[in-house]
Amino acid sequence: MFGGYSSKKKVIERYKIIGFISSGTYGRVYKAQGKHGQVGEFAIKKFKPDKEGEIQYTGISQSAIREMALCTELSHPNVVHTVEIILEDKCIYIVFEYAEHDLLQIIHHHNQVTRQAIPARTIKSILYQLLQGLVYLHKNWVMHRDLKPANIMVTSAGKVKIGDLGLARLFYKPLHSLFTGDKVVVTIWYRAPELLLGSRHYTPAVDLWAVGCIFAELLSLRPIFKGEEAKMDSKKTVPFQRNQMQRIVEILGMPTKERWPLLASMPEYPHLNSLASGNPRIHRPVSLEKWYEQNLRNNRYPEGQSKDSPGAEGLSLLQALLEYDPQKRLTAEKALSHPYFSAHDERLKPSDNCFEGSSIEYPNRRVSQEDNDIRTSSLPGTKRSGLPDDSIIGRPAKRLKEG
Predict the structure, then answer these.
(1) What does the pLDDT average to over 239-255?
(2) Which one of 99, 247, 279, 339 is CB 3.0 to 4.6 Å from 153, fit for a cystine?
(3) Burial, 370: exposed, middle or buried (Cβ in 10 Å; 0-12, 13-18, 19+)?
(4) Is 45 within a domain?
(5) Does residue 328 carry a pLDDT above 50?
(6) How many domains does the chain have?
(7) Which of 247, 254, 242, 252 is nearest to 222 (CA)?
(8) What is the rounded CA–CA span in Å between residue 27 and residue 64?
(9) Domain check: are 268 and 373 in the same one?
């Protein structure tokens, strides 16, 4: 049976639910402790079943199926490990290793509590580990498509792990364009310009743009491109994200066909000209270099950290990640070889523990005692899924070889 078990026990027989962590579009996440020899702490993701009205069960969501299919195949120190998958009362539960922190929580702690910059050595280690996980995913033809601070987990031992593969896709010879399956991907503030301009075919470069946005947020403690998202209409037409594109252009300047040869072929390209109307910032963009220098001044490093400033190499890496043309944007593999990570001084090289050398104590993720609906997860309806109730999905995890 999956995960080395042969019996068909329920979730609450395997795990003690400690409390509720968070909820999202597709489900809810709980913290749990193992029972009966299952040692340690775990995060259990309970997917909402698709349903019509209140009683008619229609099956398992596409996101749940996609995440199950991918996460059981992956094995890498910088990707969240999947322990097992359980189907019970028409609900899917994915059990993951538990991480005490995530990047969003770490950013908020510095913004609201310490009022100091994240140590440069911590940022370097976070980026290095994140890119290692991304190299592994991309080598195995997996595009994440939703990288953001909330989806990057960090253990108490300083290990960075990519989580939430609900929007991830295999990009090796897809049957249709990726746009056909998911018209909207990546949370708006981290969405690459080719996606904003309606590209029907895109590459793992969208993940590297998101890494650039995360890098900038770790430096400045706020999203670099904080736009307002225009929602789809009742006909599910994808609108041009004018405000988000404007936020990017205000810092990076207007993209040009000289800088990005395929720019004019983008479906939303005609909208670019109207961005400048009535907005003087478009004509006088900040420039990424000025933004970088200003934020390093504003977020002064704690005493003793100044010698470990991201410096010119940090700016160079950020510029290479926030490159308009996806074909020129750094790949994850090339990013790891960037001079930012190859310091001659051993003390400045990236560590596999992002907390190494730091005395900052981060609080653990907030766990609420409310909203625990795992005990009452049964839904009325028929077994239309074709899968038996109270069963464990029973194939062993076929692990992809570590990169």
Answers:
(1) 92
(2) 99
(3) exposed
(4) yes
(5) yes
(6) 2
(7) 247
(8) 9
(9) no
Shared domain for 117 and 84, answered yes or no, is no
Residue labelled with tokens 């990169």: 403
The percent of residues in the chain predicted with pLDDT above 90, rounded, is 52
Tell me which residue of 231, 232, 214 sits closest to 223, measured CA to CA: 214
| Nearest-angstrom CA–CA distance, 117 and 303 | 11
Q: Any idea what the CATH number is for the domain that residue 75 is in?
A: 3.30.200.20
**Across residues 241-246, what is the average pLDDT?**
92
Among residues 320, 302, 318, which one has the least CA distance to residue 310? 318
What residues act catalytically?
146
Nearest CA among 182, 219, 212 for reference residue 200: 182
> What does the mean pLDDT of the chain come to?
82
What CATH number should be reported for the domain holding residue 204? 1.10.510.10
Residue 402 lies in a domain: no
CA torsion 245-249-255-260 (nearest 10°) is -70
Q: Is the pLDDT of residue 56 over 70?
A: no
**Domain of residue 46, residue span:** 2-99+366-379
DSSP symbol at 368: B
Judge if 79 and 111 occupy the same domain: no
Tell me: do 57 and 119 sit in the same domain.
Answer: no
**Residue among 119, 107, 100, 207 at smallest CA distance from 157:** 100
d(CA 66, CA 60): 10
Shared-domain flag, residues 11 and 113: no
